[in-house]
Every structure is written in C-alpha cells, then in structure tokens.
Amino acid sequence: MENKNLNKHISGQFSAELEDIRNKVLAMGGLVERQLEQALDALGALDAELAQQVIDGDHRVNGMEVDIDEECTRIIAKRQPAASDLRLVIAISKTIADLERIGDACVRIAKAALEKRNNNQQPLLVSIESMGRHATRLLHSTLDSLARMDAESAIELHKEDAKLDKEYEGIIRQLMTYMMEDPRSIPGILDVLWAARAVERVGDRCKNICEYVIYYVKGRDVRHVSYEEMEKD
Amino acid sequence: MENKNLNKHISGQFSAELEDIRNKVLAMGGLVERQLEQALDALGALDAELAQQVIDGDHRVNGMEVDIDEECTRIIAKRQPAASDLRLVIAISKTIADLERIGDACVRIAKAALEKRNNNQQPLLVSIESMGRHATRLLHSTLDSLARMDAESAIELHKEDAKLDKEYEGIIRQLMTYMMEDPRSIPGILDVLWAARAVERVGDRCKNICEYVIYYVKGRDVRHVSYEEMEKD
C-alpha cells in the first residue's frame, strides 16, 4: 500500500492535488479570519456598512466549502489515498465544515451590529471586545497550527477554548445584571448576548480544528478524550 | 469503475460493511432521538433524575460517533469505494457529526432542567413544549428519510426547519416580555432561552442531514442552494 502510495506521489499529479486542497483550506481560513475581524470591528463601532459587507461576504465562504469538499471527494475516488494522505483529506474535509460555521458566527455578530445600529442603541461592548480579540487570536493561531500541521501547538491551543468559555460566562453574568437594572435595555442586551455566544462558538470550532490537526499528525481521533490521555501519547 | 464496484459487492464482504455502518448510524439516530425526548420531558417536568440520565448518556452518543467515523475511514482505505458507495460513506460520516451535535443540544436542555430544578423555579414552559414536540417529530422524520434514503421526503423536511425557526422567534419574544415585566425572573428565563435555542439548533442539524440524503441520492451537493433550484433537479 505504501509503495503504491509512493508511486502516486512520484507521478507528481497527486502531490499537486493534495497541495492544492491544503492551500485552498488555508485561503478559506484567511477569508474567515478577515470576516471575524470585520464583524467584531463592525460591532465595536456599530458600523452598518462594514456589517453588511461581512453578511454579503458569507457566500464566498460557503462557496469555498462546497468547492473544497468536492475536490476532497474527487481525490478519494480517483486517487484512493491511504494512510497519512487519507488522513489529510479527511482532516481537511472536516476543517472546512468548521470554518464555514465560524463564517456563520461572523454573520450573526454582524447582524447584531446592524440590529443595534438600527435601533440607535448605545454601545455596551467593553467586555465583548476583549473576548473578541481573544477569539481572533485563537483562530489565527489555530490556522497557523493547521498550516504547519503542528500537533504540539494544536494540543496547547485546544486548552485555550476553556479560557474563552470563562470569559463568556463572565460576560453573560455582566449582561444579566444590566438587564435586571434596566429592563428596557433587555432587547438591546439580548443582541449583545447572541453576539457573545457566537464569539464563544468560534472557540469551539477552533478546538475542533485542533483535533483534526492532531488526528492528521498522530493518526488518532482525540475527540472526547481528556488532556491527560492526549498528552500521554 | 462500476464493474470493479460490482465485483466488490459480489464478494459480499463489502456490502456487509456498508450495511453495517448504515445500521449503526440508524442506531445512533435512535439513541439521539431518545435523548431528545427525555431531555424535553426532563425540562417539562423539572425531573432532575431524568436530566442527569440524559447528561450521563451523552458519552454513548460520542462513542458511537468515533466508532462509526473510524469504520468509515477504514472502508475508504480498504475498499476504495466509488460512485454511490463513496457518497454513502461520506453522507454517513457527515450525518454522525450532526447527530453528535444534536446529542450536545440534548445535554444543554437537560442542564437547563437541572438548573431550573435546583433553583426551585416555577416552570414556564408551555411554549417550549410545543416547539420541542415539533423538533422531535422533525428528527424522527429525518431519520426515517435517512433509513429509506428518500430524497423526496428529505426535500420536504428541509423546509420544516423554517417553521421551527419561526416558533423559536415567537418564544424569544414571549420570554423577552416576561423578563421586562419581572426583572428578578431574568436568570431563570435565560435558562429557558438557552434551552429554546438548543431545540432550534436541532432543526438546523436535521436540515443538514436532509442535505446529505439528497447528496447521496441525487449525487449533488445542495448546501447553500435555494429550494427553487433544488426542486428543479
């Protein structure tokens, strides 16, 4: 099997195809990263134009998902990859699903910005900005780890999500007290709450992508596995 | 290719393997369906024991996902499936990811039940019960459509999610007015709000699974495609 694999690589074409989907998934990651930054900027500044830009840009993210997924299926059918080549294709096909969902989270954040803007509400976003920066950094590092297929950093990043969850809980608590103090503020605060939730979900998606990197490098499925077990390997 | 495919099937073993993952994904679906029913019952009756049972049962859902996923990878590597066989394996490997996330939604609903129970809160769930029943029916029909690989019913069910979304919006509105009337109720209502959101997400997952059924039967990726286009085919 390994030998057959090697022959395929020698043919050059197969290697080029694998390289191509790798590049494409990184390009998709870059696009999603920009979407997240812009969505958070739009929410911070209540910038309706930028928010609309993020919403309009989502179809490109979706299109990339469908494209790359088709290419993965074609490679499996035509090249019949084995071992690490197959793991690469599988890791990529799973990664793009999570990237697409991060794209959806960006749309949700942008819609919260539009909603708040349209209702002429006061910004109330100090706390979400820091959480947003944290999520952006996490996504950036996750994509780095994916680009280098670096399992060590993926394991480290995997733990970061718990910190983001803590920040998120703090924000929910804060927002709850605001709502209780001034019930008229509730609809506006719920918009922020949905945005905060969307940011928190970005962390979950990054965690998933880290698991695919580990799966590719170590050949082991670490979903639902504890850190102790993960580091033992 | 088709011929080679046929030979594999004649060998019998390959067919048995495909049948096996089909049965397993349906068994996983059945388990998730029970989890959803019990989570909603636990929330309706504020039954802590039942809620805990749902939370404890989630590791079985997770375990099934990992098992079936491994088997899909093994089939791809060993059998090098083509055409509709490959589409079946891909559809199944995507379906289990959505089923696993419906399982997570069940845990979230069960946790809301526990939270409300522990705080001795009054139930306030009339509206979520009907939405919950709707989601349960949708999941049941989706699994039926998957069992029969019936693209027609999958297209019909795909539209159901929009109705669930409408119900969800109505509930959020209702909960918002309760919160504004009595700010002390806010923490308790947020629990219900998270539960309602989790139920709404079940609909999104069912929609995804319907798309995989259509992909398997029609050989076409219908994600991000409008109904008009979908029905034209």
From TrEMBL, chains A, B:
Pfam families on file: PhoU
CC per GO annotation: cytoplasm
Protein's UniProt keywords contain Oxidoreductase: no
Domain PhoU as annotated: residue spans: 26-112, 128-213
A GO biological process held by the record: intracellular phosphate ion homeostasis
Domain of life: Bacteria
Alphabetical UniProt keywords: Cytoplasm, Phosphate transport, Transport
Protein's UniProt keywords contain Signal: no
Cell compartment(s), UniProt: Cytoplasm
Description of how the protein assembles with itself and partners: Homodimer.
Entries under NCBIfam families matching the protein: phoU_full, PRK11115.1
Function: Plays a role in the regulation of phosphate uptake.
Homology family: Belongs to the PhoU family.
Protein name listed in UniProt: Phosphate-specific transport system accessory protein PhoU
